[in-house]
User: Fold these one by one.
Assistant:
Number 1:
Amino acid sequence: MDNFAYSIIAAVSKNGGIGYKGDLPWRLKKEMAYFNRITTQVNRENTQNAVIMGRNTWQSIPDKYRPLKGRINVVISKTLNSVPEGILLYPKLTEALKDLYSNDCVEKCWIIGGTGLYNEAINDKNCKYLYITKINQEFVCDTFFPDFDPNNFEEIFEPYIPKDIQEENGIQYEFKVFKRL
Ligand SMILES: NC(=O)c1ccc[n+]([C@@H]2O[C@H](COP(=O)([O-])OP(=O)(O)OC[C@H]3O[C@@H](n4cnc5c(N)ncnc54)[C@H](OP(=O)(O)O)[C@@H]3O)[C@@H](O)[C@H]2O)c1
């Protein structure tokens, strides 16, 4: 699996939270637009990216927004028996990644949550990049981004990622990208 580089994307509050009661703890339309842009954009023609998510994250997406359009939607679950047509279901992340990377039509794989998948990915050397939106505010949360060793990552700057502080509904946040060392 050495060539299977893939990435994490997450929005994380100051107290490390990512979710509350099966939903996002905040409403940030522009942050959501950023998530959609970053996970959808491809460099090669006739390819799409895959967005890989746990069962709860899949079930948290409102019907009108799922499947996430323009991307191959992949759900990791050992208990779900079926998913709608066109959605890929795997019991294990490693099995999903193996199939996705043997498919020429897939450009990038994005881990989009929640905690269990972030934790598995952040401890896997093939997960090379973390796209983290740092929300500079504390929120009541019941789901958290896993602890990880920041010494394993360095911040990088991509030309297509805004560097300035964003603000929506009085909430400030920044787009950060980290590369595994
Ligand atoms: N802020 C953000 O960027 C962000 C991103 C995504 C989600 N969220 C929020 O986070 C919450 C959902 O996340 P969650 O952590 O509760 O659940 P989740 O990871 O989406 O789903 C958990 C389920 O997914 C499967 N799963 C997860 N990790 C796995 C692994 N490594 N290997 C195999 N199967 C795995 C298991 O399903 P089975 O039990 O069926 O086997 C597990 O019970 C919601 O509140 C959502 O809004 C926030």
Number 2:
Amino acid sequence: PGGFALTAPLHGSDSVSLETSARPDGAGGWVLNGAKKWIGNGAAGGITIVWARDTEDGQVKGFVVEQSTPGYEAEVITGKGALRAIHQAEITLTDVRVGDDARLPGVARFKDAARVLVATRVNVGWSALGHATAMFEAALAYARQREQFGKPLGAHQMVQERLAQMLDEVTAMQTRCVAVARLQAAGRLRDEQASLLKYACTRGARRVAQIARDMLGGNGILLEHRVMRHFADVEALHTYEGTESVQALILGRDLTGMSAFA
Ligand SMILES: Cc1cc2nc3c(=O)[nH]c(=O)nc-3n(C[C@H](O)[C@H](O)[C@H](O)COP(=O)(O)OP(=O)(O)OC[C@H]3O[C@@H](n4cnc5c(N)ncnc54)[C@H](O)[C@@H]3O)c2cc1C
């Protein structure tokens, strides 16, 4: 298992300000120091790609670090209400020594690290679609079998309206995901299009989550009815790989030619 360690405890959305340092050790290797937070699989015993700033040229570089390397300490983050199927870790790096062969080739600056986020943002779009579909299907099944006022929920006009809203959201997300997959396959996907997919799909999944959770009434908050689990996971998706606001800033910069990040 592998981790991707970009986020720092004090730098999330402004990950470009990362403080983890990579110092040449004078013998062809590197010494890494710093801290990371929220790193999926960061304590799994495998490898972690650590993004660190080269103390010589000030640029961000990527290093493959074995999690068993002396100085690599990882603590699993507990108490999470979302994405409980995978752990995230808080990591400290204290004089972690790696050889030059641990440095990722083709990475010379932060922009190269950010290239990875384009692919992962597309993945988040598809994940949001998966969660939304599952919640829609659960709500539809519930509406068919649960009876109130002498007939199934699904036979009430307002419930049908809400089913139609969810169908609309899910179909819109499907259409966007397929369009982006076609652009990807043709090698024509722009970074901003990946951001727009993530922005639209996690927002759409959140709207589906609200409707589906409500449609199940009190049972909607019970984990056994599934919707609540997806609801919680969608909240995590909405935040990682760049929050909704960060995607909006990327889109706004592209639309106006002006950066409003800082
Ligand atoms: C479950 C989970 C898994 C994760 N996995 C990984 C991982 O494997 N590897 C990794 O490197 N990171 C990972 N992350 C970290 C994730 O990428 C960050 O949480 C995310 O980038 C947001 O950073 P933050 O939590 O520090 O929030 P902050 O940056 O503190 O943001 C807090 C709020 O302020 C808003 N905000 C921030 N800046 C601005 C601005 N300029 N204008 C307007 N609003 C702004 C944000 O949108 C957000 O709503 C994970 C996070 C979670 C929750």
Number 3:
Amino acid sequence: MLTYHGLIELRDKLANNEIGLELAKEKCWSDFKEGQRSWHTKDWKDRRPKFIKEKCEICSSKETLTIQHLSHPKKYSEFKREIIRTYAKDYIDTNPNIDKSEFTAHILKKYEYVPIPLCPNCMCKNPSERVRKIPKYRCADCKHEFEEAIYRSEIELISIFYQDEDAYEVRDKCFISKDKWRNKHNLSNIRYWLQRELAKNKDSETIEKKAFLLYLSDNIKYLSFEDTITACKKCASSFDLHKMELCPKCKKHYKGIQYPTCIQCLPEEKRKAAMEKIEFGKEWQDMHKRLGID
Ligand SMILES: [Zn+2]
Ligand SMILES: [Zn+2]
Ligand SMILES: [Zn+2]
């Protein structure tokens, strides 16, 4: 895995077009799998002592201090998905319509159509199918009984959709994608995913690069220790550190986001109770460990 400085250098080179995207990805991921813990690296351990404070930033204890991240870096795929979503939105705003024949060809190629049975009398959807009785169907709406339901063709549905995309006839998710996901879509879902695909392909290089730069910056931030606090072992195990922020009163200690101030800023009585709770939390966990429950 690249070191903190290595990542900064890589990000700058990529941003200034001194290195291609594929090579940058290779350099970043060559000897590390995404999600691997950065604190196993030597670089992290070497820089850690510079950032660890001399007291717990929650309870002021000096006992067994650890450095804790308040957030974790996101995956590359998450950044990519977010960026594709914005590009798709812009694309749809400027190209809201798709050529009907292009749309039809896309559906025929990529989707399986499972038509909805209709009552031949009133065209109501999903007449009830009877196992033992003859004729096979009975319409719940007009009570008409019949042996054979009628179906609309894909082409018919598409035509209705082009006249009125909110029409009653075209709302059903009766198209199943032929890929491994087997997604059930209606025509407006299909149009969205097609437009998203077109947007993605149009700017694929830019999208990937933007996502990768954000991913690198996120990892750099993580390795910079910018978003960390020093917590004693007790506090680190008692609090959800992803839900902590600096106390607005003393601007020195950290507090859970649900509380108005940190423990240190509480009136004496409450402060004592809170400290006991931390102590108790630790003992509780020790007991669980001793009993082998944890
Ligand atoms: Zn503490
Ligand atoms: Zn009917
Ligand atoms: Zn405070």
Number 4:
Amino acid sequence: MRRIIVQGSSRNNGNTNKIVQILQKYLECDLIDLSECDIRQYDYENRNKNDDFLTTIKKIVEYDLIIFATPVYWYSMSGTLKTFFDRITDCLKIDKETGRKLRGKNMAAISCGSDSHENEGFFIPFEKSAEYLGMNYFGHIHTWIEEKEPSDSTLDLIKDFSKNLSKCK
Ligand SMILES: Cc1cc2nc3c(=O)[nH]c(=O)nc-3n(C[C@H](O)[C@H](O)[C@H](O)COP(=O)(O)O)c2cc1C
């Protein structure tokens, strides 16, 4: 089982990364940090086809479990991650072979906010996108960091989630 975390924060060593690092302590996962990739907004004319999107998605589709990790920005996933999802459209139109490789793969998601409250519907775009792409949605957790470090309940959540993810076949 090959696993990869796709980190969608606007900073590479912020709170989302703290959560990602804890998950990586429990579960062997590679990491792609989207903030280090040059991935432009979706374009109907594909004028951005030479940016980093295709090389990035081609690496990701080789994994069996893809875990999206995003901060909560204005009650939603980050713009960085949303742009990445928008660009998956390229795999349905111009690089269908890569898009097809997502079928049957597993998706999971982790959010990181400053508030313990999970906004209703936050994970619907993940669940629906997995369904549309023919992927198996393996679940999600909402984590939060109020001060500098995650609370014990967040740590427990990540530990339990990693146990569940390790059962993903
Ligand atoms: C632009 C922006 C919008 C935010 N909106 C929310 C929000 O709607 N709900 C929330 O709980 N926290 C919100 N926060 C706080 C972040 O979710 C929180 O600090 C998170 O842990 C930051 O992760 P990062 O360091 O990876 O960016 C927001 C932060 C920023 C910068």
